[in-house]
Amino acid sequence: MKKMRKILVSMLTILAITLTSVSALAYTEQEAPQEKITEFYYTVYNKDGEIVETGTIPGSDSRVKWEGIVLDNGEEVKLTKANGQAFNMLADVRYDFVVWLDRKARMYNAIYRSNYDASENLSLTDSWYSNVLTYSRAATMPEAGYYYFMIKNYSSDPVTIEEVELIF
């Protein structure tokens, strides 16, 4: 009888430890911080599609003072990873794309499905207009693949993109 009681107590102890571990693991997964990307490679195109500027947006933890990307009317900027490649994004994973401007301006924003090195536009995945100082877009990709972001100035005056974030 004592042996049976010891076995039962041991089993209940193991069960209690297991349940505590599972709930702690679930809590850790829910509270895990999201990945935030603030360093991008950019290419600015004029109205004729010619490259007028390239560079890197330094990350938020950089000590470099960055002046921003100035877009004249009709100019657009392509944003990729810091190494110039497209973002490898999974399907059904939420992303938040956040942009800060120096003033309110009419902007066209698009997300394109692409190849690995972001040299081909395979399809338009999402697009929207914004007309505010700071804006964001939250969505999920319809399928896994490579993607890059485009922002075009539709306002009559130049506008400066001061900061960009991509949060997974």
Question: Could you characterize what this model shows?
Answer:
This protein is α+β, with helices and mostly antiparallel strands and 168 residues long. 18% of the residues lie in helices and 46% in strands. The protein contains one helix and twelve strands. Strands 2, 3, 5, 6, 8, 9 and 11 form a seven-stranded antiparallel β-sheet that branches. The radius of gyration is 23 Å and the shape is elongated. The termini are far apart.
Structure at a glance:
The protein has 168 residues and is α+β, with helices and mostly antiparallel strands.
Beta-strand percentage?
over 45%
Query: How far is the N terminus from the C terminus?
Result: 56 Å
Task: Assign the structural class, choosing from mainly alpha, mainly beta, alpha/beta, alpha+beta, or little secondary structure.
Answer: alpha+beta
What's the gyration radius in Å?
23 Å
Helix run count: 1
What is the β-strand count?
Answer: 12
Mean pLDDT, rounded to whole units?
85
Could you give a short account of the major beta sheet? 7 strands, antiparallel
- General shape: elongated
Level of helix content? 10-25%
Order of helices and strands: HEEEEEEEEEEEE
Query: What oligomeric state best describes the polypeptide chains here?
Result: single chain
Uncertain spans, ≥5 residues at pLDDT below 50?
22-32
